[in-house]
């Protein structure tokens, strides 16, 4: 069995399981080491499949159907918290942030901001001076993948970000399908 087939098997097992599966149990099932399973889990997560590690093993997110949309936005550093609060207050969550740089292409980072507490922790990290906002690479222009339980919620979020003046227009040089080319995760 090759690695891709094994990873598909791991996802299938976790989807069907009603309890956490330990790395050891998965390793025995696929006749590989536990370290191979740890590496497989990392590769699966890189494909945006939510697998969580618990003290009793791995579980896959049992999400209800989710809808997502990419929003291109522009604002100043002072508006970051306002933007994120608007999204979570209306029932969405911020999956990621990415920029489209003419030289480097798409640079992306996961955010996974679901609540005001997540926003507070994020802002504290940024203000600590250890890192800078990714949007600085492109003079404030950036994109978020916003996730919500329905399209109507995404529309509310779009309308609010538009009202706040944060929605930016796509330019001719920007690709419409950002994920058709290889992306760079930072």
TrEMBL record:
Domain Helix-turn-helix type residues, every copy: 6-58
3H domain location: 72-166
Superkingdom of origin organism: Bacteria
GO molecular function, one term: metal ion binding
Protein keywords: Metal-binding, Nickel
Residues annotated as binding Ni(2+): 75, 83, 142, 144
Pfam families membership: 3H, HTH_11
Record bears the keyword Disulfide bond: no
InterPro entries cross-referenced by the UniProt entry: 3H_dom_sf, 3H_domain, HTH_11, NadR, WH-like_DNA-bd_sf, WH_DNA-bd_sf
PANTHER family for this protein: TRANSCRIPTION REPRESSOR NIAR-RELATED (PTHR40068:SF1)
Protein name (record): Transcription repressor NiaR
Organism encoding this protein: Lachnospira pectinoschiza
